[in-house]
Design a protein that fits this description.
four-stranded parallel sheet; 12% strand; 2 domains; Rossmann fold; alpha/beta; single chain
Length: 297
């Protein structure tokens, strides 16, 4: 009987200890589901969240014209299940507005890069080519991750620090190019690279032409003639060519530029596969430096 009572006491102690241990066990972190309208934002979200986030990027094909994108029911389902949504804004991904309204998404769970920068409708929508915009986005994502998963605060802070270290190196590289190459006149088939060109200190020509093309319009004969003349007379030193939106008119400009000996740098709106955002920006800057070197060896 004594041993029976002893065994019962031991068993009761184990149960009490187990209950206390369970009560004070470290919380299990939830994997956050993040939807990014564009894949460069999705990559940044993944870098900052690591194993604690699952990211789905909607616009992720660099070979497709992003302006021809069409929604599917599967995309709507993913958005309905998301914990956090990242959008560009400025009309670039206006199709997201319909989905967010449909699924009654809380505005606190939506990160708009446009809103972070207080940009207004009519501003250049290609915000990912502005490294300051990416800086602001990364800081905001880290704040939201900590809010949603406070137990992983140190992890998120460490990942943000690492990402911003890389971003600062890109900023330094941009400043070095800007200081080394002054009075550079450039043009583009669309204003995709405009914000980065501005950071580099380039003078952007033919902007009315670019905006008409971006908005699906037809440039005037005067705009076309002026663009061609500036290429042939070397008023333009680099032509930035949107590789995702190709038309007979933009192909003609590229051909004229190459025949005139003007450097042509291809850029895209969607980040190429198998690259991080940092690698993508450095790859683009590599092409810019090569173009500048060809003009000023």
């Amino acid at each position: 009987m004594f041993f029976s009572q002893y065994r019962k006491s031991i068993l009761a102690g184990i149960i009490i200890y187990s209950s206390c241990t369970a009560a004070y066990a470290e919380p299990v972190s939830k994997v956050l589901h993040v939807i990014a309208a564009e894949n460069m934002y999705g990559d940044i979200a993944q870098q900052l969240g690591g194993k604690y986030v699952q990211v789905d990027s909607i616009l992720n094909n660099p070979d497709q014209d992003p302006h021809l994108f069409e929604l599917t029911p599967s995309i709507g389902k993913k958005i309905a299940d998301a914990d956090l949504i990242i959008v560009n804004g400025l009309g670039y991904d206006s199709w997201m507005n319909r989905l967010l309204t449909k699924y009654h998404f809380n505005h606190q769970d939506i990160v708009s890069v446009q809103a972070l920068l207080n940009r207004k409708e009519g501003d250049n929508p290609h915000l990912w080519y502005d490294v300051d915009a990416i800086d602001a986005l990364s800081g905001r994502l880290e704040q939201l991750y900590v809010k949603l998963e406070p137990h992983e605060k140190l992890v998120f802070e460490s990942k943000l620090s690492s990402f911003q270290t890389d971003l600062n190196k890109i900023k330094e590289r941009i400043e070095t190019i800007k200081q080394k190459h002054v009075h550079i006149k450039v043009a583009a088939t669309e204003p995709v690279f405009g914000l980065m060109a501005q950071k580099l200190g380039f003078e952007m020509l033919e902007e009315p032409y670019q905006w008409v093309v971006m908005n699906g319009g037809e440039p005037t004969p005067k705009q076309v003639a002026g663009f061609i003349q500036d290429l042939k007379t070397h008023q333009i030193q680099i032509l930035f060519y949107n590789e995702q939106v190709v038309t007979p008119a933009t192909q003609q400009l590229k051909k004229i530029a190459m025949e005139a000996g003007v450097a042509v740098v291809g850029v895209s709106e969607t980040m190429p596969a198998n690259l991080t955002y940092q690698q993508w920006m450095n790859q683009v800057l590599d092409k810019v430096e090569a173009a500048l070197k060809s003009k000023h060896p």
